[in-house]
């Protein structure tokens, strides 16, 4: 019978932090606010387990659709399909304006 290997399967290198960046992330990442329509990058912080999106969405860029409690809804395009990722603010980075 097949077994599940957990949500963090095959993330040994993907979720690694640099040696000097290890430990908890700063509080400012937890309290950052976003506006609906703002572009954000999904950058998973492995030291924060709550609100962590699935590993497939690491590195993708999406648009904030809304908020529910402490989590944010991020709309992304995955292989031509529109999907909604639910993640906490520790796993999101605002996109810098290129203009």
Reported CATH architecture: Roll
SSE class: mainly beta
CATH overall fold name: SH3 type barrels
What is the fourth-level CATH superfamily? Ribosomal protein L21
Strand order in the sheet with the most strands: 4-3-2-1-5
By CATH reckoning, the class would read Mainly Beta
Q: What is the CA–CA distance across the termini?
A: 54 Å
Alpha-carbon Rg, integer:
14 Å
The averaged pLDDT comes out at 93
Number of domains: 1
Q: Flag low-confidence runs.
A: none
What oligomeric state do these chains adopt?
single chain
* Strands, count: 5
Q: Provide the β-strand percentage band.
A: 25-35%
Biggest sheet features: 5 strands, antiparallel
Report helical residue fraction: under 10%
| Cα shape | globular
Keywords:
5 strands; 99 residues
């Amino acid at each position: 019978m097949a077994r599940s290997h957990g949500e963090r399967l095959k993330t040994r290198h993907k979720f690694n932090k640099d040696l000097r960046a290890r430990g908890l992330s700063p509080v400012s990442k937890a309290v950052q606010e976003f506006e609906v329509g703002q572009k954000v990058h999904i950058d998973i912080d492995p030291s924060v387990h709550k609100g962590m999106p699935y590993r497939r969405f690491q590195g993708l860029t999406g648009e904030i659709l809304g908020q529910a409690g402490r989590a944010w809804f991020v709309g992304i395009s995955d292989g031509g399909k529109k999907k909604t990722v639910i993640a906490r603010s520790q796993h999101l980075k605002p996109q810098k304006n290129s203009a």
